[in-house]
Every structure is written in C-alpha cells, then in structure tokens.
Amino acid sequence: MRRNLSxxxxxxAFLALFxxxxxxxxxxxxxxxxxxxxxxxxxxxxxxxxxxYFTNVTTGLIINILFLFGYGTFTLYRTAVTGGxxxxxxxxxxxxxxxxxxxxxxxxxxxxxxxxxxARLKKxxxxxxxxxxxxxxxxxxxFQKDATIFMALSKRYQIPLTxxxxxxxxxxxxxxxxxxxxxxxxxxxxxxLSQTTIRTNDSLYMLNSNNPTWGMLLFTxxxxxxxxxDRLRDKVEDLNMQDYAGRFSVELDLRIGAVEYDxxxxxxxxxxxxxxxxxxxxxV
Length: 284
Description:
Strand content: 5-15%
Radius of gyration: 34 Å
Oligomer: single chain
CATH topology of the largest domain: Alpha-Beta Plaits
Number of strands: 4
CATH class of the largest domain: Alpha Beta
C-alpha cells in the first residue's frame, strides 16, 4: 500500500511538472513584450526547484520566502514611488515559483520513498533467499535448516549421515583465464554433474558462490560417500576430456572432503561444514 502511494505521488508530481511547464510556456508566449523579464523569473523558479531537489523542502521554502519578500518589496516600492500598477505577471510568479518548489519536493520525496522501499525489499530478498541465483541450488541458509533436521533424524533413528564438500582447485587462478560468463557456465556444469551423482533423497547445496563450494548431505556412512566421490571425480574427468579443453582451454579439478555426522563431535550445521572443509586440506 505504501509503495503504491509513493508511485502515485511520483507519477502525479511528474505530470504536474509537465502541466506547470506547459502553462508557463503559454503564459510567456502570450506576452512577448515581457519575454525577457518572464524568462528571468522562470530561471529563478527552476533554480529554486533544483536547489530543493538536491537539498530539502525547508531550504526551498526559505529561498521562496526570500524571493517573495524581495519581489514583493520591489513591487510595493515601484507602485508607491513611481506610481506603477500591480500587473497580472506579478501575481503569476508569486504563485508559480512556490508551486514549482513544492511539486519538485513532492517528486523528490516520492522517489526517495520508492528507493528506500526497493532497498528494503532487496535486503529482505537477500536475507530470505534460499536458492543460489546462478545454479538454482539450495544455498547455505537452506543447508542450515535441512542439516538441523537431518542431524536430528540421524541421531534419533541411528541413520548414518555424511557431508561431502567439494570445491575447484586453483579457482582464483582459473578466474584470471576465463570470462565471468564462462565462470558461471562452469559452475553450472559442475553443479549439474554433482546432482547426477546423488540419490533423490540426498541434497545438494551451493555453500559458497564466490569460491564455488558444494555440499552434499548423504544418508550413508563414510564408505558409502566414497562411492559418490569417485563417481563425481569420474564425471569431472569425462567433462574435461570431452568439453572443457575445447571451450575454456582449462581443466577443472575438484578437491573433495567428507565427514560423517557424530553427535558427540558436531554440534551445529556450521560445525558440520567446518569439519568437512578441514578434510579438503588432505585432498591435494
């Protein structure tokens, strides 16, 4: 509701500026004898509006008060001393200049409200997102939720649970040799390979998308996880031989580590990841 109101105010203020500009053009064009004078006042009105846009409405109104006071004083002086008459154009600029300022402030206010709402929504999206944007795999937030449940099931029903963690060797160096699009494609390809190596009741996660790190929660013991690891290595090797050498002129190699869940040694999902990552150090 608040976003719709801000959008309505922004659109209304934008259209109002067009309408005010049209009315001003018609007014200036209708009195060629005062063309230069009206152009000067128009520039003053726009200048105050621009200052309001980059500052705030208080500053704009203060400048408008000074303008009205100065212009009103000058008009009274000319009327009293020279015997001049108060013309229509005097009232026109006394009214239009503050209207320009208020319309500009309204546009600025509405746009800032929309920007703040967009920033809030983006922040909420990032904090609530459970999928990696490049691979559509579950991210580390999903892992923490799922691992908590899987660890509880493993503990209650004595079902073996193993976390397999894999990342790409020399990824920082590889990034220097291939483009960002190719990196994304490479991550997606390896993710697809990982998905084909596990069963439907196991889960695959993208734990870190900057330095691609995958996690696989497997309902099996450490020996059973070795079968998945060997299968994954074979698929990556086949991919290197058939595809990557021609496409990217680089070969991908994985470091893989695994740890079986032990309720006495692993207290949380993050601890589970930490201990699995330590096993990567032995895969050189």
